[in-house]
Amino acid sequence: MSRLIRGVGAVLLAGAVLGGCATHPNSEQALQQAGGDFQKVKEDANVLRFAPKDVIRAGESLARADRLSTYWGSGADVEHYAYLSRRYSAIAREHTEQGLNAERGARLELERQRLQLALRESKLSSVQQQGKWLEEQITSLATQTDRGLVMTLGDVLFDTGDAELKNSANRTVLKIVQFLQLNPKRVVRIEGYADNTGGEQENLRLSRDRAQSVADVLVDLGIDEKRIQVEGYGDQYPVEANASERGRAQNRRVEIVFSDAKGQLGAAR
Q1: Between the CA of residue 152 and those of 59, 87, 95, 144, 255, what are the distances in Å?
Q2: Sheet arrangement for strand 148-153
Q3: Within 10 Å of residue 232's Cβ, how many Cβ atoms?
Q4: φ and ψ at 236, to 5 degrees?
Q5: CB 183 within 8 A of CB 133
Q6: What is the chain's pLDDT, residue by residue, as a tens digit (269 residues)?
Q7: What are the structural domains of the chain?
Q8: Cα(251)–Cα(243) distance, integer angstroms
Q9: Start-end of H helices in the chain
Q10: How far apart are CA 133 and CA 151, in angstroms?
């Protein structure tokens, strides 16, 4: 009798234990949450693009948790693998966000580079247009000779017997400076000339001083002195007869000879 009672008690106890394991409400909830998270990531094209391995791991963990949920007494294992599945799903989302941020950053950097290129091209276009305009200005003020393109600064830009440039020369000199700045390979030879009023040595000194005065202004305004040659020819090479004041005025001059675009100057006198 006592043995029968003990056997019945054992069966009832086993039934109670089995009945408690079959329910596992926490395991079922964990499994459902993991399944929901996995469903979201596997349907997200960006997640599949950036984190396919994490999605695979999430699916494998979820499948294992699902299999374990059919076994009696495996509630803790179900919750463990459901947690792993949810964690892999979360990691997949994190990796995807990092990938999207990197893509956005790359697009922004590319756009920044494009804008900078557009700005440089705009500036270059503006510089080229300005350079073309200045070249037209220089050309209109100069004459093409066998020595090259020659611009003449007449006697009106200097006081009589003086080598210092008048303020009225500023506009012309600024055009020369801008032209040389926009054409960094070009060089110039500045040649000074005088009439035959003074002595030969005095005229030679004055002609060179006037040429040097123009060169000094160019250097002061930023032109490298290595790009400038200075010559004084005194009363040699007159352009008009010195018999009249008008003729002498034309002979008192400074000529600026421009090189070609490659920096090649024509032969000196």
Answers
A1: 87, 84, 72, 11, 4
A2: 142-145, 148-153, 253-258, 188-193, 228-232
A3: 21
A4: -75, 160
A5: no
A6: 333 223 323 322 333 333 333 446 788 899 999 999 999 999 999 999 999 999 999 999 999 999 988 876 578 889 999 999 999 999 999 999 999 999 988 988 887 888 777 767 767 677 777 777 777 888 888 888 888 899 998 766 666 667 777 776 777 888 898 889 888 999 999 999 998 888 899 999 999 999 998 999 899 889 999 999 999 999 999 999 988 988 888 888 899 999 998 999 988 88
A7: 2-105 (no CATH), 146-258 (3.30.1330.60)
A8: 11
A9: 2-23, 25-42, 45-50, 52-68, 75-141, 170-182, 200-220, 245-251
A10: 16
Q: How many residues does the chain have?
A: 269
Q: What does the pLDDT read at residue 17? A: 33
**Contact assessment for residue 210 and residue 163, using Cβ atoms and an 8 Å cutoff:** yes
Compute φ and ψ for 219, nearest 5 degrees. -65, -45
In the chain, what is the straight-line distance between the N-terminal and C-terminal CA atoms, in Å?
143
**Beta-ladder partners of 165:** 158
Exposure of 44 by Cβ count < 10 A (0-12 exposed, 13-18 middle, 19+ buried)? middle
The candidate with the shortest Cα–Cα distance to 86, out of 30, 127, 126, is 30
119 close to 113: Cβ distance less than 8 angstroms: no
Q: Determine phi and psi for 268, rounding to 5 degrees.
A: -75, 170
Q: Per DSSP, what are the bridge partners of residue 144? A: 149
Is the backbone of residue 254 left (phi > 0), alpha (psi -120 to 50) or beta?
beta
